Amino acid sequence: MNRRALVSVITLVLFIGVVAAQSRKPAGTSHNGNAFRFNKVKEGVYHAIGTGSLAVVGNGAVIVNDNDVMIVDDHVSPAAAWVLLEEVKALTKKPVTTVINTHFHFDHAHGNQIFDPSVQIIGHEFTRRMLLGNPTAMPLYQGYLNGMPGQIETLRKRIAAEKDPAARAKLQTQLQVTENNYASQKELKPTPPNVTLSTQMTLFRGDREIQIRYLGRGHTAGDVVVLLPQERVVITGDFLTSGLSNMSDSYPEEWAASLDALKKLDFDTVLPGHGEAFTDKAKIDYFQAYLRDVWTETSRLKKEGVSAEEAAKRVDVTRHKGQLPIQAPGIPALAATRIYDLLDGKVK
Ligand SMILES: [Zn+2]
């Protein structure tokens, strides 16, 4: 082969490589500035939180080991996960070998599809079953997705009417974030964990021990927490957040009991799936008390013949407002419906 032909072949190979790499890039990744801030909580342990320049929704964690990187929860879309991987490169050049899904909800597991099949995606058996099923048909996700075109329309109108340049720029960012998220959701292929556990799995990476623990039904039937015993960190997803958690797939009564199992673990720092990291363990007590009250109050109203819709408005848990972000009486409609379904035996 002469030199010219060789250069052509090399150019072609490079071109194919670039096209292949680009074709993996999902729609909707564009954003200004960093999409994530990585809050270092212990050596090699970061809480990954969205900055607002890209739709991320759930918080995750990045664990940098001696030779590899582990991600806990990969956010709301293929675009969010792809950008996460790009930005993790600023922390470390080590390869991402492992992803852990704390549960199946869209804001924590919809980035799964972007990972190479050689990456282990670990989750509870239930999480796999749910992601293999039809998770996009669930009301929680349908409500989220179907709200987007309306939000886009409203933002466009507000931008057209806004005179103040700063306010306008802010709205434009919100529009870009929503449009990108919508574009990425259209490419969604729910991808289940390729490694599952039922109660516990322990990984060892150099000196680090990583325990994945199922503590009983709660936020869903298959939430796991990730415990780093040496670092005394627990990554809790939505099993325990810094505020309230979604209840649409929950078992509120069992959840309060499962949180007792969390209390027995040895940790000093919680990295929640929503909100900032915290050290105050009293938050577990507050949330347990809230769950028990929601359950009791909703059950009482049901016994009185009140409809689920009406109960959602009337359940009064405002006595917890000093400890939890509660402003007025009422719980989400999906929470009331869920409790009614549990009491009726429609969900087991
Ligand atoms: Zn969440």
3D architecture notes:
This protein is of the alpha/beta class. 40% of the residues lie in helices and 18% in strands. It has eleven helices and twelve strands. The protein has helices at 3-23, 78-88, 106-109, 125-132, 139-146, 148-161, 165-186, 252-263, 282-303, 308-314, 333-343, and strands at residues 36-42, 45-50, 60-64, 69-72, 96-100, 120-124, 195-197, 200-205, 208-214, 224-228, 233-237, 269-272. It is globular, with a radius of gyration of 22 Å. The N and C termini lie far apart (69 Å). The model is unreliable at 18-23 (pLDDT under 50). Bound molecules: zinc ion. Zinc ion binds next to helix 3.
Number of helices: 11
Record field, number of beta strands: 12
What is the radius of gyration?
Answer: 22 Å
Poorly predicted ranges: 18-23
Q: Shape from CA axes?
A: globular
Strand neighbour order, sheet with most strands:
1-2-3-4-5-6-7
Order of helices and strands: HEEEEHEHEHHHHEEEEEHEHHH
SSE-based structural type: alpha/beta
Return the average pLDDT rounded to an integer.
94
- What percent strand? 15-25%
Biggest sheet statistics: 7 strands, mixed
Ligands, deduplicated: zinc ion
> Could you tell me how far the N terminus lies from the C terminus, measured between alpha carbons in angstroms?
69 Å
User: What share of residues is helical?
Assistant: 40-55%
